Amino acid sequence: MMMSVDTDLLRVLADPLRLRIVTLLAEETLCSTHLIEETGARQTNLSNHLRVLREAGVVETEPCGRFTYYRLKPDVIASLAGQFADLAETARATAENNVKRSCP
Length: 104
Hints:
- The protein has 104 residues and is an alpha+beta fold.
- The chain is built from five helices and three strands.
- A three-stranded antiparallel β-sheet has the order 1-3-2.
- Strand 2 and strand 3 (67-72) form a beta hairpin.
- It is elongated, with a radius of gyration of 18 Å.
């Protein structure tokens, strides 16, 4: 059976700034002001990356007065990790059983 990994989610997380944001949000819920301080990104750049992460379902927002806090959705990351774990298990079984396609 062919295993697949969510390539759309991989593209979202492949950007270094988005990965940094996800890493920071894994440790605590932060507002954009905190994220600007931590990443050194400009407000507009950070907002664009947060929009991509929201649209991909990686983060969720929580309004708090005039600020918006961002929180990582761990189930999305866990799902991706599970896909990689399944892929690794398939590769392990393939190697153990010496599965290979014969050449024509």
